[in-house]
Amino acid sequence: MLREKIFSDLRRVLHLIWLLVGGGSILFFTGLFVLGKIHRAAPAETLINWRTVWLLLTPVVMVFAGVYISGRYGRCPFCRQHLSTHYPIRRTCSRCGRDVRLYQ
To answer: Which of 21, 34, 89, 99 is deepest in the core (most CB within 10 A)?
Structure first.
């Protein structure tokens, strides 16, 4: 029971990483697209200023939070190797071979 809970927690962390990094980058490029569509005649270097930076601040914070969580919690608890974020999630570390579900 405890092993499956830890494995589901790892899966939840990896989903959160994908959500933050992927969602943040989608929001970032959507914000740039919206700024470009609203101000068609303005030069590109004048689009980002103190009035429009709030559109891009939230996605940047999301991406940095996803990278931080990936570095902090997306690692093997034994050898500190980054765990794969590809699916299905492996139950063992690819470097040390230990079962990541046994970590408490």
So the answer is: 21
